[in-house]
Amino acid sequence: MDERFLNYCDQLQPRLDALLAMPGIHPVAPPTGMPNRGVYLLTENDVHLYTGRSNTMPKRLRDHCTGGHRKAALAVKLTRLATGNPATYRRENSISVLMTQPDFATAFTDAQTRIRNMTLRYVEETDPVRQCLLEIYVSLVLRTTYNSWDTT
């Protein structure tokens, strides 16, 4: 295996350890001084549900908690699962159309409330390659429920 790639891989476990060592906080109000670039983990009842990465972490977390449906991907995923409306490329099942349905819109609001009540941990990661690999590593090691690497 390429030595440069192995060097990135060697740094993943210590970064995961740092992430898990952080005391959990609520995502709705990230602390002042939170780094912009990094990887975050959302947990509920000690179950790791979702990991993400961002170059604007405080803004990204606000989007998860209070953003519109175009910016709150986790809330959309939770809503689709709760309502039985899987993602498709068909117009009638698009998120924009579904958001016009009162039951779906209410479930979306409920999903964002659920996310606001989750526990957040994060770790700064400024290197874009390590940030990408760390997101995947955290998801695989912790078996986060709502991460998917399927592009279909």
What does this molecule look like?
This is GIY-YIG domain-containing protein. Residues 38-75 form the GIY-YIG domain. It holds the Pfam family GIY-YIG. The protein has seven helices and three strands; from the N terminus they run H-H-E-E-H-H-H-H-E-H. By secondary structure, it is α+β, with helices and mostly antiparallel strands. The chain has one domain (3-142). The longest helix is centred in the last third of the chain and has 15 residues, at 102-116.
Mean pLDDT: 91
Query: How much helix, percentage-wise, in residues?
Result: 40-55%
Low-confidence stretches: none
Overall geometry comes to globular
- Give the C-alpha Rg: 16 Å
Tell me the number of helical segments per DSSP (H or I, 4 or more residues long).
7
Q: What is the oligomer described by this structure?
A: single chain
Count every beta strand, where a strand is a DSSP E run of 2 or more residues: 3
The string of secondary-structure elements, in order, is: HHEEHHHHEH
Annotation keywords:
single chain; 152 residues; alpha+beta; 48% helix; GIY-YIG_endonuc; GIY-YIG domain-containing protein
Itemize the secondary structure elements and their pairings:
Elements: H1 3-10, H2 12-21, E1 38-44, E2 47-54, H3 57-66, H4 73-83, H5 95-98, H6 102-116, E3 119-124, H7 128-142
Antiparallel strand pairs: 1-2, 1-3
Describe the structure concisely for a colleague.
This is GIY-YIG domain-containing protein. The protein has 152 residues and is of the alpha+beta class.
